[in-house]
Specification:
The complex is a heterodimer of chains A (484) and B (617). Chain A is of the alpha+beta class and 484 residues long. Chain A has helices at 6-12, 16-27, 81-91, 103-124, 131-158, 165-180, 184-195, 210-243, 255-258, 265-270, 363-372, 377-388, and strands spanning 31-36, 42-47, 55-60, 68-71, 97-98, 274-290, 295-304, 310-318, 334-342, 351-352, 357-359, 398-402, 405-409, 412-416, 422-424, 452-460, 465-474, 479-481. Chain B folds into 4 domains: 4-83, no CATH class; 109-116 and 124-228; 335-492, no CATH class; 501-613. Classes of the chains: A alpha+beta (484), B mainly alpha (617). Chains A and B meet through helix 2, helix 5, helix 8, strand 6 and helix 12 of A and helix 1, helix 5, strand 1, helix 6 and helix 35 of B.
Chain lengths: 484, 617
Amino acid sequence: MIQIDESYVDAAAPNDAASKNARGLVLKGKFTRLHQSADGTLLFGECQGSGASPYRCSCDFVRPESPTHRCTCPSRQFPCKHCLALMYAYVQGKKFTTADVPADVAEKREKMQQRVEKKKEEQTKPRQVDKGALAKKIKAQLAGLDLLETIAGDLVRMGMGNTNAKVARQIEEQAKQLGNAYLPGAQAALNAYTGLFLGEGGKFDSDLPAAAREAIYSEALDQLTRVHALVKQGRAYLAKRLEDPDLQPETETAIAAWLGHAWQLRELRDAGLVETDVELVQLAFHGYDDAARREFVDTGIWMNLNTGRIQLTQTFRPYQAAKHIKSDDSFFQVAEVKELCVYPGDVNPRVRWEEMLPRPLEKRDYQRISQHAHGDFAAVVKEVKGHLKGPLADKRPVYALRYARIGRVGEELVAEDAKEQRLMMTDAGMAEEPPSCRLFHLLPQTLLAGQTLVARFHHDLDTRKLRIKPLAVVTESSIVRLTY
Amino acid sequence: MSIALLGEVYGEMRRLAIAGSSLAGGDFRLKKLVPPLQKAAAKAPVFGKVADAIQTLVDSKPQDSAAALLELSTLVSAILYTQGETGAEGRLVPLETSDYGLPATNASARMLKPLVEALTGAGSGRQEVIADAHRRGAFRDFRLLAPALKAIDDGYGEIADFVADEILPLYGKAIYGDLKATFDPKGKGGAVRRLRVMHRLDPTATRELVEQVLESGSKELKLAALGCLQGSREAIPRLLEQAKSKSSEVRGVALRCLAEFDDDAVADAIMAAVSGEDLLMAAEPARCNPSPRLLKLLLEEAEKQFTELLSGKEKDKVAVQTRAARFHSLLHCFFERRDKQTVAFFSRCFEHREKISGIKGDCPGYRINRSVASLLVTSGSKAAQKLVVEAHATSSHELLDVAMAAAILSRKPAEVYDIFAPHYLAETDGQKKGRGPAAKMRECLQRLFMQWSGAILSCDPAGFDLGLGDSWEKLKGAKMDPRWLDAAVETKDFVVVLALARPGHKGACDMLAEELGARLKKRSDWESDSSEILETMVRIGHPKMVEYFVEAIGHAGETKTADNYWIGPLIEQLPVEAAPLIEALLPSLPENLTTWIVPWLAALQAKAAQASNSPSQ
């Protein structure tokens, strides 16, 4: 018996419009046939489309942790509205008659099984690397780093004060060459610098007023310093790889990703960057427009209940392909993952999985979150500072903090631990997520003592203060999200 | 560690990064920092590295300066990142929170995003998204607070007003600071709404702001500020002052705010407005004001004006018209007053109705007579209502519906029928259609029935507003003698049948079916009356309402009518058995009609599902 409900189908939809259209198909009675296989694992049917022949769609739950949706419609959305409608029809109790699995679906199932087995087999085989192509690529990257160094050097020599909208536009054009040199991370770093000089409306058509410029210079210098570090470390790393083409991508740091390496799950497995039988709870989620990367980024902030680490899921949707890539969404259950692949990184590494089973949150899960949270602010601060000093480190790490109380010192919102160590809260400098500090005035008093705060750290370069931005409050029975 | 020294290094480094690293060679301000850094290196070797990096920079040639500056930046930044200050000195005081309850934050980002876009974006369709979300209780999710605050300045005023009046107050005093922080005393739309919300959340805290705005705010804000003074006796002097403002809008609001006070100065101010050019504006405040002094003044003025009208001395027709119009406007000040003096005066006026009816022009005498009659009806005085009822036989048709209204309010249904049925049933054949007195009488009564039922038809004769105010509610709740419907069926008066149809009346049901059938034969202009007929069928539980409704939907599909908005809301009122019949129809309907119907049908199906799951089943 397939265990799905309406919220499962809602979550499977790539976007809200697909969900609405799918529901409409069911109500309009567009399905001419609705069937279920004898073993109950396959739903299939025919749905009237705009053409003469109906579309044949199916939802295959033979592997429930990784269902397969198939449809003859030309839509590139996945799952398409017909498959979603099929699932809605099922959960809404429409009549599905038992029928044999269609021959084409049976064949596809078999092929899928073969692929799965082949994949497993291939994972045990050593990977073949085209050394010639790799060397060519590395040389292109090294040339790209030289270009990056030249651009950054010119900017520093000329002075940030002379970076205006025109110059920023010119740099963005040059930065495109970095993308051609297999250095998307470098391109993004440069765009992150030029993006600071955008005028009102996010366009390059006007120059920033003096006060606004003064406010960005520290951040801009930090970005250029980061670019400089990328050049240095990247050059050293690539030189090593050029010397030894058999050398595997670096896994101790994130330098490989900075230099544009797109980690495959198999590589992560081969590198031993895998955790098994993991339970994850999502503590916060937000989607934002990363103009520097020219992508929409959906980020889930999860706690690994086994280790207590905060890990991130990230879905990148390039502007030009955004419509065709399913956006990620908030998740309100526990994700049981048999095999969790962990990207190289430091405090909050990115993670990915291929298969997952959801289960409802229980009291023990909230207890585990609380137990894993850091109750000693001084120790956390020390750890954060040690992490931040790396020029290529994530400058906004996330931690779970167990606080004794939250209150006010003057006009500042402050969290205090059991030893009366304090951390000030702020929204400044962290614009990816919507403002959250003001929401504390709307929380019940009971939540302002003895709970867990999920927070993002940020070091303000001008004031030299290390502060936190609240993302969620976890109690013994709920997660109160402060961002989206 | 000497952080201050490092801070200085950072400052100089930043300066050169802004000005250009090519200026770094020999920079004396940087050079000055080298010796103290070298000294500090004795305790912390990293300072020595910083000193070396500075030396490299100041010694560099312009072409090497960028790399040297960035090396220095890397080193200094790395150190400063480890020295970030945390903590806060001072007493930790509890946070003031509003009694909002535990927020519901289990809406997914995908559900929130369209709503956030509706609140912060532009374009059509947003209002419905926001209103629907409000109905569903979505704003319990306090993550929507920031977008909702932004929407108070929305370019589409209706959205901004809705957010200000219905949504923001949900969050309580916790948002007061946010509103105040963004309040512009010279502003207009957004500022006005902010003031309104702040006053609603905390009138005491907002008072100072109100005073400030009254002194020097924009006109729009002054009007809103005056509204905030409503109900405050201490504000009477302020309001009296504003009642003399040069701006008529400000005077109007001030008078409205003063209306509730029984105060001599207030009475004088209102009377001054009534006697002058602000009569129309002051009429409503005058009507509501409880002051006996004002009443006396008003009656004196009314007496004076009526006597002048009645005297006939004025020969200039324009002057007569002006007086008539002024007197008619003055009547508004007495609407729904129940005191003996008012009733006595207008009873006297009513007795002179024949003379008054001789006044012609833009404000004809019959209109004055109607208003006087309405005043008497709404006074609640039995004697006054009797006077109006008994006038039915001698008055023109313009007063007939008012007379019947008086009868409905004061007599039994059977009596009302006995008195007025002869007018309704009077022979109209042989008269010029719709023009003879009998026809006009009948038309007048038809209007009353239609207004009583709330029906609006395309054949609706142009109606007079009965002007009965709150008495309308009492009138609408009154029972009608069952013989009226029989009379309407007998005389084939579809308009009145529609108004009076009741469950189980075969004649009415047959007539509704017949009328609907005739309209469904038309290919165009059939929708608006059909919607009224179907609404009536649903209201009375017509035995074939589902069948006719399904037929109407089919007809809407065939004729591809654009005017089909009425179908959706009616679906919700149908019995649940209609759901499968309508669902079966969907595949044959045009896409736009199906798309409109589907959500309403889903609601009906949900009702059906709920009914089948209920314990009583």
